[in-house]
Each structure stands twice: as C-alpha cells, then as structure tokens.
Amino acid sequence: MKLLKRKSKNKTKKTVYLIVNENPKSPITEQYRLIRNNIHFSSVDKEIKSIVVTSPEPSDGKTTTAANLAIVLTQQGKRVLLVDTDLRKPSVHYAFNTSNLDGITSVLTKEINLDFAIAKTNVPNLDILTSGPIPPNPLELLDSKAMELVMEELKDMYEYIVFDTPPILAVTDAQILGNKCDGVVLVVASGKTHKDQARKAKDMLEKAKCQLLGVVVNGVESKKNGYGHYS
Ligand SMILES: Nc1ncnc2c1ncn2[C@@H]1O[C@H](COP(=O)(O)OP(=O)(O)O)[C@@H](O)[C@H]1O
Ligand SMILES: [Mg+2]
Questions:
Q1: I want to staple 60 with a disulfide (CB 3.0 to 4.6 A). Which of 43, 55, 108, 172 is the partner?
Q2: Could you give the 3-state DSSP secondary structure of residue 127?
Q3: Domain total for the chain?
C-alpha cells in the first residue's frame, strides 16, 4: 500500500509541554497522578495495560495528556510505551523531538519491524512509537487484524501502553481503539469544552464499550485553528 510520505522536518513544528518534568507540584500533574491511581485500583478486577487518551475536539490537550500520563506511569518503575495513533494529525514526535519517517503505520503495512519502529526517549522507562507516514485510510489501519496483533505484541513488551488519538467528536478512531483497549482517559479543556460536548464524548465511549478511567481537565486556552481534515 502506498503511504503519503512526510518530511521529518516540519516548519509548523509544535512542541508539547511535558509539564510533569518541569512542574511536578502543579495541579495538572496531580490530575495525572489521580488517573494513575485510578488505573492502579481499576486493575484489581481486570488488568489495565492499554490506555486510550482522547477528547471531544482538536487542541483540547490529548497529546499533552497522553505524554504526561505516560511519564507519570514510568515513575513507579514501569516500562511504558506511548503510541501516536492520531494518524490524522500526529504530534508525539514533536513532543520528543524525534523523526517520524517510520512509525506504527510502517509496522502495520509491514515495511519495518516493530522493534525497529520503537524509539527510546530521554525519560527513563519511556519508549515511543510515532505515527509514521500519514495513511489515506487511518480507520481501516486502526481497525485491522494487523493492529490487534501489534497490540498483543506490545502488551508482552510493556507494562503500560498509552495511545494518543484524534478527537472523538470528529472521527471514530478513538472509539475503535478504545474498544480494543483496557481503558480510556477523557480530556476536557477548561473554559473551552462545553458540557454537552463532554457528555456526548462520554456517551460515545460508553456506546463503544470503553471503560472510562477518568477525566483530565486541561487548562488550555481556547484556540481556533485549521483542523479541516477532520471533517
Ligand atoms: N496544560 C497545558 N499547559 C500548557 N500548554 C498546553 C497545555 N495543554 C495543551 N497545551 C498546548 O496546547 C496545544 C494543544 O495541545 P495538544 O496536547 O497538542 O492538543 P490535542 O492533542 O488535543 O490536539 C499544544 O501547543 C500544547 O502544547
Ligand atoms: Mg494531539
């Protein structure tokens, strides 16, 4: 299958604030720890290893939350993998300043092996699997048998796998992944996410039979920007 190749150097480079490292005492860091506790206690009945992070809309703080939650999860000596499954607007590679020439799409299309696609970070115990080239058919890739096999393989390699996803009110990717994972963390943007959007997102997760592990209220300012390709 032909994938649209992306250049690793991107002029509109966006950084993601790894707040947990820079400000371990802030209230938002405390929210990540609360989610970690929820995951820990929810694991009593059913082991929680694979976690989807999503939100109603673009720019709510999904990638920021996924990256910071992954870091918090490593802080108890667990091996954690952060996977960029926002195959529409990937940005995990920006957060960790790595190349995105290869990634999960390259693994799913059998271009490279999983081991080769995974990158180490400078956070101890944290590895990342970037998106790789943006595919024309994100949903088909995420809903594939190949994806299920990769997820099984990752569960043997890591104690936690955190999946960053596109906004749930825009496309069904997060529902599909949430259904295959052990739990979902919903991010809402303080002062931006409307109550009915949050409720709709929650309903959609329930409909997809996802276990809600918690809600992170992210203190991000409202931003208008072009996410036209989600529609
Ligand atoms: N808690 C926060 N503090 C400071 N900046 C934030 C915070 N959350 C998000 N941002 C910034 O807002 C923008 C959108 O966040 P991001 O995590 O990429 O959202 P999403 O993945 O939902 O589109 C990014 O530039 C990010 O760095
Ligand atoms: Mg994102």
A1: 55
A2: strand
A3: 1
Residue 215, in any domain of the structure: yes
Question: Would you say residue 46 lies in a domain?
Answer: no
According to the model, what pLDDT value does residue 1 have? 41
Ligand 1 pocket, residue 132 CB under 6 Å:
no
Residue span of the structural domain in which 56 resides = 52-230
Is the CB–ligand 1 distance for residue 88 below 6 Å?
A: no
For residue 189, what pLDDT is reported? 96
Q: Return the CATH number at 144.
A: 3.40.50.300
26 pLDDT above the threshold of 90: no
Ligand 1 atom having least distance to the Cα of 86:
21
Q: Rounded to an integer, what is the distance from CA 18 to the centroid of its chain? A: 14
Q: Which two tokens stand for residue 82?
A: 């952060």
Mean pLDDT of the chain: 88
- Pairing assessment for the beta strands 126-129 and 119-120 based on DSSP bridges: antiparallel
Cα gap 166→134, rounded to integer Å: 13
Give, for ligand 1, the residue of 220, 227, 229 to mutate: max count of ligand atoms closer than 8 Å to Cβ. 220
Assess if residue 163 is contained within a domain.
yes
